[in-house]
Amino acid sequence: MLAFNRFLYRNCLAAFALGTGVLCALASSPVMAEAPKKIATANLCVDQLVLRIADPDRVTTVHWLTQEEDDSSMAAMASRYPANHGQAEEILATKPELVFLGSYNAPLAGMMMDALGLQVVRVTDPVTYEGIVKNVRQIASTLGREARGAAIVTSFEANLAATHNVLKDRDLRVLVYGSGGYSAGRPGLFDATLTHVGLTNLAAEGDDAGWVPMTVEEVLLAKPDILLLGDYRPDSPSLAGNITRHPALAGISEHVRVIHMPTKLWNCGTPTIAEAAAYLVEQITQAFPESAVR
Question: What are the structural domains, with CATH classification, of the chain?
Answer without folding.
Answer: 2-158 (3.40.50.1980), 168-292 (3.40.50.1980)
